[in-house]
Fold these 2 entries.
Entry 1:
Amino acid sequence: MTTAAVTTLPARRSQVTDNYLTQDRRLRSWLFTLDHKRIGVLYLATSLLAMLIGGLLAMVIRTQLLVPQGLIFHGHGNAAAYAAYKHYNQIFTLHGIIMVFMVLIPIIPGALGNFVLPLMLGAKDVAFPRLNLMSFWLYVGGAVLAIASTVAGAVDTGWTFYTPFSIHTETYVVVMLLGIFLIGFSSIFTGLNFIVTIHKLRPPGMTWFRMPLFLWGIYATSIIQVAATPVVGVTLVLLCLERIMGIGIFNPALGGNPVLFQDFFWFYSHPAVYIMILPAMGIISEIVPVFSRKHIFGYSFIAMSSLAIALIGFLVWGHHMFVNGQSAELDAIFSFLTFLVAVPSAVKVFNWLATMYKGAIVLDTPMLYALSFLILFTIGGLTGVILGALATNVVLHDTYFVVGHFHLVMMGGTIIGFIGGLHYWWPKMFGRMYNETLARIACVLLFFGIAITFVPQLIVGAEGMPRRYAHYLPMYQPYMVASSIGAYLQLAAFILMTGYLVHSLVRGRKAPMNPWGGGSLEWTTASPPPHDNFAHPPVIGENYDPYDYRHLAYDPKIGGYVPTGIGDTCGAGKYS
Amino acid sequence: MTETVSIGKQHDLAQRHLAHHFDTPQQQFDAGKLGMWLFLSTELLLFSGLFCAYAVYRALHPEIFRYAGQYLDMPSGLANTLILLTSGLTMALAVRFAQLGRRIGLVVCLFLTICGGLGFLGLHGYEYFTNYREKLLWGLNYNPSHGPHGQAIAPIRSLTPLTVRSLPGGVGGWASLKALGRQGFIVSHSAIAPAASGPPGIAAGQRHTVRLAPYAQPANVQLFFSIYYLMTGLHSLHVLIGVILMTWLLFRAWRGDFSPRYYTPVDLIGLYWGIVDMIWMFLFPLLYLLH
Ligand code: HEM
Ligand SMILES: [Cu+2]
């Protein structure tokens, strides 16, 4: 006889009438909410808006590059061409800044993390709800400042702000930097909040190694957010002071060292790519076992590889600076460490594959996203290793190969992971199902869109086309056109997705408590959850295991899984 | 004159401050404390960027730091160090008094700490002011009329004329080498295998030559002042924030908000003040002492 893993009673009647969405409908109850679920929804809405803006800018870029001389921005004579290409620089700079700082970094922790972290943990809220709200508003404030700087004089430095150009350009760099600074603080506070929540708000019975792996991913991410973001904060302030007061630290004309800026910038921005990818990996670790109906393989390896990535990720920033005069010894060390950091990523990939092996795979939308992630992220990650090798880097640095690499990991990794997670938790967040067929079509479209956009970029890059150019040699045109077609496919996928998700909000079938048969605690409360998360605080028994699905059975009447109750075999032995 | 709060009232106070998502006041206190430690680590990281810039420039241009550091007013820096140390003590006492529920002690200690913070800011402000008058500033604004010891400023560093001195080896040679270092820049001295005895680099019983350049202003001294203003400026900003926070604490302490059951804000701001103190303990030797 074993105790039931989770003994939360449904108590359905009271929850149907009152959930976190309906319990107070006034606008100010949303804007000043301290409820982590509502803050998650606010993050979701704002970062999706940012993604829309960034995405439209991407469409401008891809349209420009349909023809070698540039379709939108071109000019005859030096002055006209200079002005036109400057606009192109402004467009891709804004695209990069929005996507990196307003979408990729905050979207998963802010939207999904906020929503499900306390639920998965079995807590009532995050540790500091007020700080959480403040983080959200800092994010909004920073985004508004950044966009305002664009209206005043759009920055044309690229998202990397390399000095000395960023000191001399006459565009509104200072306002933009202040905006990013605020967003950085928002990120720090979110990370801090999550770390404290995971340390101090785990209910009795929820030990570290009983936490769902998404929480490990978020935990590792939070460590990076807290440990790396302050450094970029001070770097951005220094760059502002450089422009306002001429302090000269990064300005060679005043004796300063521009390479120091690059060191500081990448010391943050390399770990930042793990801020983007670790939560997405966490989502994949949730989806794969649920839709393979099989216990996750190598739980502790996946958990620990997140921490390993977080830690080693701090030691590889020099791989962005192989060709800037860094000493050969440093180059070799950074290259070695770059190879090393690929190992824990690979550990995860193999564990996911092993989880699927001989599983009863269900190809629902979240799982399709997980599979897309596996393919696209693996290609992207391997191109990273190619870039990390010194000899190839010298050839490929600052070409489209780099562009292809990071878009494959960021679109094919972070965004695919995020959208997979969104589809996975959507019924929990809004209490509605979406149209499964349309969702699968959108996923396939997006998968091919991403592959067709970015794989040709790897090829043109390897053939020598530099990044950030507004025009190019005719020999590259076939690839560039293919890439643009891929981008339009992605646009189509997103339009379709918007359509059926909005339809789901209004008309969607009511979601059951546990539509996919997940074993973690968020599936033991109503969809959508009540204001206090659980009608009764979950009791986490001795044999609780979020990846054990054997006590769940599909009930066609409600279209979801229910605990079988009898013969509960939780903890009688793991599958793996 | 101490005031202790009755146990029943303490319990009420603790409960009143307990947010709905915590089970016990202890859990809430622990969470707050962990949060504060994490926040303080981000503060350290914020400064670490500047420390790193300091280290890099010092390694690349030691002559700038040796030269410019002499401009700073060491006694005033030392006075500030003592002030901050004392205020650290009074803050620690304030936390202790809060734990014991001794309101008057808490109020007095907070007041003294605030005075320390303000004293520090005043003295530092005065130092900034004198620097400003002498145009010891960052970037292109750096334009002092005389050298660190009141001497006329030699034109930008030139390595001629060089004096070549011959020194004895061993401990005596070491001492005269240090003495020479105060007269000018040691451009090079002849490489000698490590001695069996005596400080490394100077073999006992052997003579070696030293090439000495006169003290002239090295290039890019303004870099030192950029770093000096950034580090001390960021630190002073933190002192200022600390003073504001403690004024708020003082007000609440006066009102009697704190008790042995609930004194989290005092404890957390005490931690903050400790870190602010500690950062200065690094800034002072790095900027004022290490020439
Ligand atoms: C699997 C391990 C990975 C390795 C070994 C790796 C390696 C590299 C290397 C060596 C570069 C520098 C290329 C150059 O400029 O010459 C680079 C660039 C980049 N990587 Fe990765 N990477 C990996 C994963 C990721 C992930 C997961 C992301 C984001 C989610 C990412 C985002 C980026 C970005 C944004 C850049 C370009 C930055 C710029 O110059 O604008 N990488 N990567
Ligand atoms: Cu990197």
Entry 2:
Amino acid sequence: MATKTQDKIEQNTNKKQEPITYDLVLVGGSPSNLTMAHRLCELAKTKPEMHISVAILEKAEEFGAHIVSGAVVNKTIFDKAYPNHIADGMPIESICKESHFSILSENAKWDVPSVITRAALPDFVKDGYYVLTLSAVVEWMAETLVTKANEIPNITVDMFPGFAAHEAIIENDKVVGVRVGKTGDPIEDNVYASIIAFGDKGFLSKDIIKHFNLEGNPQLWSVGVKETWKLAEDTPCMKGKVYHSLGYPTLDGTLGGGFVYGLDHKRLTIGLVISLDSKNPNIHPQKQLQEYKKHPWLQKLLKGAELLNYGAAVLPEGGLASLPKQFQTNGSLLLGDALGLLDMKSLAGVDKALESGYLAAQTAFDALQARDFSAETLSTYQENLMHSPFMDKFKANKYFRKAFLDNPELLSEFSPKFLKGIELTQIPLIGGLVGPLVGALIVGLSNPIKAIMQTIDVGIKMNSPGDVKQEIVYKAGYKAINPNFSKELIKRNQGRQEFNKSTIYSREDAVFYAQTKYIEHPEHIDEFSSDTCLKCINKYDAVKLDVPCVSDCTAEVHRLDISSEGIKVHGMSLENCIQCRTCELICPEQNLRVNPAYAGAGPDFRGL
Amino acid sequence: MNKDLNIYVLIKQVPDTRSKAGVNADGTIDRAKAGKMLNPFDAFAMQAAIDAKAMGGPNSKITAVTMGPPPAIAILYQALEHGIDKACILSDRKLAASDTLATAYALSMTLEYVQAKDGPADLVFCGLQTTDGDTAQVGPEICERMDLTQITYCEGFEIRDNLVHARKVIEGGAMEVEADLPALITIANSYNRLEHKTFRGAKFVQEVKRNEAIQKQFVEIIDLADCKAEDSRCGLPGSPTIVSATWKIGTVGGSCKMHQGKSVEELVGEVVNINQETIKEFAKA
Ligand SMILES: Cc1cc2nc3c(=O)[nH]c(=O)nc-3n(C[C@H](O)[C@H](O)[C@H](O)COP(=O)(O)OP(=O)(O)OC[C@H]3O[C@@H](n4cnc5c(N)ncnc54)[C@H](O)[C@@H]3O)c2cc1C
Ligand code: SF4
Ligand code: SF4
């Protein structure tokens, strides 16, 4: 003991010190990484003679503060990864007691009858699922982890909220550590480990994928924008009700959908997920969320309600086809969204994120025993994950994105007409589909054969993937952007005129509800070349559209300034940034990089 | 080259200004109910101590000292996270209701106690004042007791040739002073903001919390008997200050109206209208 204490004295002085090392460093206080640490605790108990040290880095000031999700999650994963989660007080908003799949036109809402949903869209039947505020669950995971680890003598888990990993350190083809500081002295700035797990939604994992040449198909991303509301006392209780919607307000051909989840304490979550591989250079995600709320259905629910929080995050939606060729490298593992484990068809990523953490723990534990951290040894992770039952739906839904990519008119042309049809018939006829179909015929489809063919093709790709023997080839989202995108289509998204103004927030005001806090002067987004921006600005000016970074930023960051020479230049109000990475993904010139900020700065998403 | 500096920084835990504190029947704050935070002024003092250490010789060290109930140890952990080397808390029920005189006495006895172990101070840093007392007296009172050179309202300093060159905030400007060591300096909130905690510090604190032996070595908990302070000079008996009465000065706030969710033009219009109305009301009055 005496010598150990002496070591510590040395450690906390200003003298040149030993490098900071752990067995495992987990990048991101994410659901996946926290589950990995929880599971490692359990595994450590089985080998008391083995000591394991773990560090968890989270860029937010508090665990959960940079987490925004839906989230409706299958409870079975919690039964597996957190068998005592009920007794341990995991915060659960509600248990889904009715789930709807709704089609929205500008004025009407059509709930697909549950017989049809159960038969044709089983992924959207969420009855019995947990409705969660994921930021709160992550906070709970972090707290219970500290308590758990303290009771196990042979594992130490150090928690580092407020410390982002800013750079991966790769030596001799092995990930050996990450940089957490910026003093310039590597001894103080770097943290080293035998295994680094990236559960960081792409911030550094994209560098790993690139460096080790793991990318097959590029990842396709979408952006999710979300608000939580406190409903008025006299609004009927929504707790346990889950709605997923298609249609209004995303009518420009972009793949997107809304969700409305009833939470505890008369709160409601309203969100929209929009694919970023849209041809439309001006998606305006935050504005579209406002359009969504203008729908009469939501206007009624929000009467007298009060906005509590706003946030945004991106989602990897390429599915199976976008998975990296390997889920591990020498010295590192990729988890959750960083790997791309979200199933867009069922809007479910949390279950697979947790499962990836659970399985990564076993692989890391085995590797620590064998003292072998090569990609080969770590590949049991990939094998186990690909055989996990939690991946079944993910695998089965592999054509989901391709289905819409192959049939673009379905969303841009036919579906708006179907929606009009629904509106015209108003009351869906018995048998469900008949109403909208009749309506669609009244409106008149320009090319009914093509509409039917495309619908069938999408239907097959979504529901009988076994029969589809087609290669999946994606191109990165930013490559889809078309500066000559139809103005008519853009107009369609601009929606309704009648609404209660107190339910609608400008982007500037929304930032207030994301509670961004930057103490130091933020510099976390790199703009690589101002010349590139100038060219881009000219290009979009010529077609009278905003540059994509300005229109699609989910907070009020990107702007155009007039320089002293009187020309438009790109500028950023970084203190508003909510670190969603949308701008990086949609910049057509790939001229931006969003880095994590220092000192825990950024939004406070707790409550989302 | 400056010599190794032995630095002390005095810090205090105060009710968190962002949390709602209860008020006792006698008008005092119900401290038990309030959230807690490091006195914001002390964050500047901590940064000053860290900066001073960097100016001293390679074996310079900082000890953070506080007085308060046991949970106040949280701010000592915070100090260690920022790279401060050691910490000591004076905690004793008999200290309840101490005024500035009694507090300064107890803290100077604590400083004597730690100096006996860790060597005499070259520099003692204090925050300018606390947010729950607002007197700005404790620092200067300790300084008098310890017979150190006194610099107050300091917003910047350097140590050259073992002399402190400091800039003090004074009404309407600043004043440059030069002083011998040892000195006690109270730091104004125009000093550099406290930098983010260090990774090594954050790591170390987690070890300290886990391991009692290390904790004993780095965070000392003492009572009045340990530092040989006289009970009669502490707490209520040692506090000549008399608070004759406290009362509520009425409700603060409540009249703030948020204007949001509309176009800038509309918002400006609304605000302008409000101002006109306010002006009219004033004119009437
Ligand atoms: C609007 C929206 C709705 C969703 N709805 C659902 C739903 O209903 N059901 C469902 O199952 N899934 C849903 N998802 C998806 C789900 O939220 C994700 O799949 C899941 O959160 C992924 O978990 P993860 O472990 O990969 O970590 P993430 O949730 O991606 O968390 C990453 C964490 O790492 C931190 N981090 C990132 N980079 C660094 C760094 N360099 N250093 C330190 N920390 C870093 C971040 O701050 C964050 O805390 C939704 C997502 C969104 C955006
Ligand atoms: S950052 Fe990208 S989108 Fe924005 S102006 Fe520059 S090049 Fe264009
Ligand atoms: S600037 Fe920040 S908030 Fe805006 S899109 Fe980029 S990462 Fe998101």
